[in-house]
Amino acid sequence: xxxxxxxxxxxxxxxxxxxxxxxxxxxxxxxxxxxxxxxxxxxxxxxxxxxxxxxxxxxxxxxxxxxxxxxxxxxxxxxxxxxxxxxxxxxxxxxxxxxxxxxxxxxxxxxxxxxxxxxxxxxxxxxxxxxxxxxxxxxxxxxxxxxxxxxxxxxxxxxxxxxxxxxxxxxxxxxxxxxxxxxxxxxxxxxxxxxxxxxxxxxxxxxxxxxxxxxxxxxxxxxxxxxxxxxxxxxxxxxxxxxxxxxxxxxxxxxxxxxxxxxxxxxxxxxxxxxxxxxxxxxxxxxxxxxxxxxxxxxxxxxxxxxxxxxxxxxxxxxxxxxxxxxxxxxxxxxxxxxxxxxxxxxxxxxxxxxxxxxxxxxxxxxxxxxxxxxxxxxxxxxxxxxxxxxxxxxxxxxxxxxxxxxxxxxxxxxxxxxxxxxxxxxxxxxxxxxxxxxxxxxxxxxxxxxxxxxxxxxxxxxxxxxxxxxxxxxxxxxxxxxxxxxxxxxxxxxxxxxxxxxxxxxxxxxxxxxxxxxxxxxxxxxxxxxxxxxxxxxxxxxxxxxxxxxxxxxxxxxxxxxxxxxxxxxxxxxxxxxxxxxxxxxxxxxxxxx
Length: 595
Fold this sequence. Notes:
Number of domains: 3
Domain HAMP: 246-298
Domain PAC: 205-257
CATH topology of the largest domain: Helix Hairpins
Strand content: 5-15%
GO biological process, one term: signal transduction
Structural class: alpha+beta
Largest sheet: 5 strands, antiparallel
CATH class of the largest domain: Mainly Alpha
Number of helices: 12
Main location: membrane
CATH superfamily of the largest domain: Methyl-accepting chemotaxis protein
Radius of gyration: 75 Å
Helix content: 55-70%
Strand order of the largest sheet: 2-1-5-4-3
Shape: rod-shaped
Coiled coil: 279-342
């Protein structure tokens, strides 16, 4: 016997239906105690449980049924008051930690009594993301030109910004191919084919593109072509987001042309047409900088001309100075050699003077010794003279004795004669005595004569010795004077030799310094020559730059006329060249004519 079929109760059917729902459903009774969670909501809350517990420490999915909904609220009284007054479904969004949920609260009523609440939960993440994406897309459409294509390049849609940029209406472009916006040469190129092949392969293209607007107008856009993929990764369409940069590109081109002119040295090129607001300040600054550069380059040109003339004169002066320095060095070298010879001669003279001084000193000593000998001879001659005088006195006594003896002999003869015979013998003796007295008297007379002669000779010798002594005294005095003079000459010669040695040392030092100066002058001359070459190169380089004054000057020149030499400005003083005739000659101005 078969069992009769029992239909499930309505409540059971409702529970089963809610369990099968993909929606997230919660039921609470009138006291706000949670009575039911369907599986979808339980799964959602378990997924968010860890995050919810950071904000709601009492939250626990396992004990959620039977718990009060106050566990979801930090201020339960506010929610209770709101729910008590709730008469119709109410939508709300709550944020717990980083989780955001959309809630739809529907009161369950029996008559006028609220018996419970049904709460539908939804994760608000996707909704908020969609809102964010929609807001971003709206912002993009407000600020950028947007156009959509099929994968073959057929236009399907475009926003107002794009239509304004290209000058078309929507009806004029929908159904047309993208190639209508490119030049014919590019349209038929392999690059254009590869461009669309890349988009169909899912590779986006971003760059600055040159396009053709309505009427052939040139349009520049900064944009990206973006392949849009479906859930399977297949490209379904291509969307381009772009910004019109035509004015910026033209402004950059204008600036580039101006910079190219500047690179060619044309300083009279200005950007007179206002550019886009973000670049116009650059235009103003460029014009101002160019004006300053033009002024500076004009001054540099003038200064280069002056420097060139000055360098020519400096180069000439350096050559002259180099020659004179070489001559001076050679002359000084000869002077040093001559001073060396003089010093050597003075040294020899000083040595000879020293020897002469020594010889003179020896002669002085010899003369002094001779004077002493003469003095002794004079003394000896004086003693001889005194002895002669004494001998003369003795001879006088002998003569007197002889006279007396003769007189006595005479008296004795007289007496003997008187005595007669008795006196003969005595007379003979008296005669002999008389003869002896006569001989003595004669001898004394002779001796006296000799003594007188000897005395005269001795006196003459004494006088001569005295004269010789006086002469020797004078000779000694003169020898002393000569010795003093020779000593003074030797001292002066020694001083002169020392002075000449110092002069020779100084001259040698001057010679070394002059040689160094000559080397430095050669280096200076070489540097001046190099600087002159560099100045000419600078002048040649400066000819690349053309200022407004140059342009006006060239405009005033007749065709094919030779460029005249640039006259010197009135306020430009020529460098002083006094004392150097080589520098007084004006340098050639042919190389500076362009300035």
